[in-house]
Amino acid sequence: MKIKSLLFTFWVLCLAFPMVAQQPDARDILDRAADAFRREGGIKITFSVRAPEGNSNGSIRLKGDKFLLETEGVTTWFDGRTQWSYLASSDEVNVSEPAPEELQSINPYSWLSLYNQDYKLKVVKVGNASDDTTYKVVMTATKRSQDMQCVILYIEKGSFRPLKLSMVQRGSKDAVIVFINSYQTGKNYDDSLFVFDKQAYPTAEIVDLR
C-alpha cells in the first residue's frame, strides 16, 4: 500500500501560463501553477509510477479540491471533506475525513497550498545544462518530522505544465518518480463524481474511520 499512498502525492500543477519576460523564481513558478489550476476547470491526468516496490499506472480526475483517483486495485473519492477508499482485494471501503497534513499523501493538489508552508524552494539546473525547456523546482522540508522530505518538480517552461515528479519520504533513501503521460483540461465534472456510490458497489463492506 506504500506505493498507493505515495501516488496520491503526485498530481501536481497542471497548467497553462504564458512566459514572463524575466526568469521566475521557484515560488513564482509554483504560485502561477497554482493559479492556473484554480482557473482550469476539470482536469484528467494519466500517469505511471516507478518505485522501489514496483511500477504502476493510474489516472486522476480533479475539480478544485475534489478528486477521483484510480490506481491498480484502489479507487479513492474525495469531495473536499470526506474520503472513500475502495480496496478491490477485500471489497472494502474505508471512510475518513483527512486533516490538511494527511492530504499531502492523499490529495495531489494539496501542494498548491502546502508548498508555502515549511518547505525551502529553489530552482536548479536540469541534468543537461543545455536543456532550456524545463524548470526543475526543488522543495526541501525544513522540519525532520515532515513526511515528505524532498519533492522535485519538473515543469515545462513554455506552458508551465508538469512533466515529472520525484519525491523522497521521511526515513527512505529511495525516490518515487511519477511520469505524467497525458492530461486534459476544461472537463465538466459533476460533483457526484467525487462521492462514493454505494449502489455501484453493493457487496462492499463500509468501514467508517471518522
UniProtKB/TrEMBL annotation:
The answer, when asked if rRNA-binding is one of the entry's keywords, is no
- Chain coiled-coil ranges: none
Give the SUPFAM superfamilies listed for this entry. Prokaryotic lipoproteins and lipoprotein localization factors
Pfam families registered for this protein in UniProt: LolA_2
Top-level taxon of origin: Bacteria
Source organism of the structure: Bacteroides clarus YIT 12056
Protein name, per record? Outer membrane lipoprotein carrier protein LolA
Q: Which CDD domains match?
A: LolA
Q: Does the keyword Ligase apply?
A: no
Where does the secretion signal sit in this chain? 1-21
